[in-house]
Amino acid sequence: MFANLLIILASSLVVIAVFRRLQLPPVLGYLCVGLFVGPTALDWINESEELPDLAEMGVVFLLFSLGLEFSLSKMLAMRGVVFGLGILQVICTSGLLAGLLALQGMPTPAAFLLGAGLALSSTAIVSKELTSLGEIFSSHGQNAIGVLLFQDVIAVLLLTLVPVFAGDGGQAWYWALPLTLAKTVLLFFGLLLASRWVLPRLFHEVAASRSAELFVLLALVIVLLAAWLTHLLGLSPALGAFLAGMLLGESHYRHQIEADIRPFRDILLGLFFVSIGMLIDLHLFVSHGLAIAGLTLLLLLLKGSVVAVLVKLRGSDSETAWRSGLALAQGGEFCFALMAQMQQSHLLPAEIGSLLLAATFCSMVMTPLLLRAAPSIAARLHRKPNQEVQLDEISAHSAGLDAHVVICGYGRVGQSIGRFLRREQQRYIALDDDPVRIREAAAAENCVHYGDSRRGELLAAVGLERARLVVIAVDKTDIALIVLKAARLINSDVPILVRTRDDSVLAELKAAGASAVVPELLESSLILASHALVMLGVPEDHVQSRVNEVRQSRYRLLQGFYHGAQTNLIDSQGQPRVLMHAVNLGADAYACGRPLEELALEQMGVQLQSVQRQGEDLTTDASTCLHAGDAVLLSGSMAAIEACEARLLGGR
Q1: What are residue 562's phi and psi, to 5 degrees?
Q2: pLDDT at residue number 537
Q3: What is the pLDDT of residue 494?
Q4: Quick check: 385 pLDDT over 50?
Q5: What's the pLDDT at 386?
Q6: Range in 118-122, 160-164, 634-638, 641-645 the model is least confident about
Q7: Which residues contact 371 (CB under 8 A, 6 or more apart)?
Q8: Is pLDDT of 164 > 70?
Q9: Distance between CA atoms of residues 478 and 512, nearest Å
Q10: Sheet harboring 516-519: ordered strands across?
């Protein structure tokens, strides 16, 4: 067991690092690790009974985290998707796939079971990718999650039907179905009572103790206890974990719980994907490569089309329909367990089962790439209703505008900017891709339009080439960068103001053509500091000049902070955080008596914030010599700070 874990973790470390460099999803890396270290390739992993159980815990933790994001009120609002779209998707897709299998000579019971199994999608992959892409609460994201929740219930039922159709006894399906649903309802209400009366008191006591270890332990116990109770009822452990997370989603401790279990979730989920990859026979890709490719393509097209048609018939727009279809087009991890059980019961020939397993695996491998390419794929697969008409209408509306402001992203920040512009009688036009927000805003404002600001033709339609200013107020920095580049292709001279959360990609945005970048966290710190100075009696004109100095220096004074015990040294983009650290020079320090120019600290990736001597800040330049007792305040990444400290103290 320990040797297996060592091999898997070491291989994953190398492969995931390479995939990060190639900007490929980590899920693909884990699947490839399993494929190559498995018994049909390098055969580095020995048989282990504990590994599948450990890997399954990854899905349990993932579903618990997902449940934290979906409060009970949100789930009640999604009941139409879960039981409406979910039932239709399973019935329609199962019927089509079962019919195709029956035409190939498979007995009807086996065709029904296998068709239903292939109709289910990968909860683990879709949930993780939608979360990482920030699309979990989009229209297609909620469609996918709702359907996946219903599929988890159906998955349990299908496993109970295998011995029935194999003639091995067991319950009849018409008893198994209501019994499974009754157990689910019982579990839900049991967890609901616990979340209302027991868990809040427990979390309050643990939080009052201010013990991080106790909080982590309580979070782990809740996840595992919910999964264990669900397993005792004969249901999917992941389903119980989701329900527990959902019921805790409205508590005040939701964010802390999610942060505490994230490390366990990510590592265990990686093991799960590795275990999936190990089930595939690599030799099949050589001997039956074309057949596997054909089956994979057929599965993706059929499932994706069925979901897209159903979503469209429910009244959604075409883009939401196709992106929902792409999210649910793959086969699921449940198929592996179902096929293995069917082969043991002699309901499925081994050769057909191996080919279908390989096709299911390939569809799962392609899913992260499909989800990332979904916007462009959806655009190619359909023409939005009246898309050209929409562009013409926006163009007509903006035709009379000149020297106006274009706002990309009309959330809270974009709306605040719009209110100031209206007060100053400055004309503007805004774009946002949230249909609900646009519908609400359009009722009071005629200058707000629906659309993705990343589309160059849409930016041209709002008259960006005639604009006086462009404000990019979208929430995600990677999207802001794409919008910025698209805007610069249309108008290379217009000033562009970009809003970001912090200064982690400030240089990249400036290099791409941003005229000014406003990091929210730094700007709010600057405003608070200026208010504090004014309240202390410092003249307002002096405070304003200091504020202007900080802004003109690109917030250099505010970059970096002293990290604490709970500080995450990696930011949300996976980059090292800018930290601050003071190096006190002793009498034998290498830097004593040497000028800053010779030490060349900034060439090592840090910024020299200040040099303090006897408690006073020195005015420094390249010729300033350091003395014993000086405190050198540096900002930069942890690695750069450690390297500079080594040079200051030891000359290395």
Answers
A1: -75, 120
A2: 86
A3: 92
A4: no
A5: 47
A6: 160-164
A7: 126, 129, 130, 133, 135, 326, 327
A8: no
A9: 12
A10: 448-450, 428-432, 405-408, 469-472, 496-500, 516-519
Q: State the DSSP string of 509-569.
A: HHHTT-SEEEEHHHHHHHHHHHHHHHHTT--HHHHHHHHHHHHHTTTGGGS-----TT--S
Q: What is the chain's mean pLDDT, rounded?
A: 81
Interval 344-348 mean pLDDT: 80
Q: Name the nearest CA neighbour of 474 among 463, 465, 487, 492.
A: 487
String of DSSP letters for 248-292? HTTSTTHHHHHHHHHHHHHHHHHHHHHHHHHTS-TTHHHHSHHHH
Assign domain 579-650 one CATH number from 3.40.50.1220, 3.30.2270.10, 3.30.70.1450, 3.30.565.10.
Answer: 3.30.70.1450
Q: Rounded distance, CA 123 to CA 6, Å?
A: 27
Question: What percentage of the chain reaches a pLDDT higher than 90?
Answer: 15
Phi and psi torsions of 634, nearest 5°? -115, 155
Distance CA 114, CA 101 (A): 8
- Which residue's structure tokens are 């003249």? 539
Topology at the third CATH level for domain 50-279+289-377: Na+/H+ antiporter like fold (1.20.1530)
Residue ranges per structural domain of the chain = 50-279+289-377, 387-514, 518-558, 579-650
Q: How far apart are the first and last CA of the chain?
A: 43
Sign of CA dihedral 166, 171, 176, 178: positive
Q: Which two tokens stand for residue 478?
A: 């990677």
CATH code of the region 387-514: 3.40.50.720
Q: What is the pTM of this model?
A: 0.59
Which of 68-77, 429-438, 568-577 bottoms out in mean pLDDT, i.e. has the lowest?
A: 568-577
Which distant-in-sequence residues (6+ apart) come within 8 Å of 517 by Cβ?
Answer: 497, 498, 500, 503, 506, 509, 510, 554
Q: According to DSSP H, which parts of 314-349 are helical?
A: 318-327, 334-344
3-state SS assignment for residue 114: helix
Biggest CA-to-CA distance, the chain: 90
- Spatial CB neighbours of 410, under 8 Å, sequence gap ≥ 6: 418, 430, 431, 432, 434, 437, 438, 441, 448, 473
Per-residue model confidence as pLDDT tens digits over 205-218: 887 787 878 888 88
Over residues 402-461, the pLDDT tens digits come to 889 999 988 878 888 888 888 888 899 999 877 667 776 776 677 888 888 888 888 988
Question: 136 in helix, strand or coil?
Answer: coil
- C-alpha distances in Å from residue 158, one per residue of 93, 120, 180, 266, 634: 15, 11, 11, 28, 61
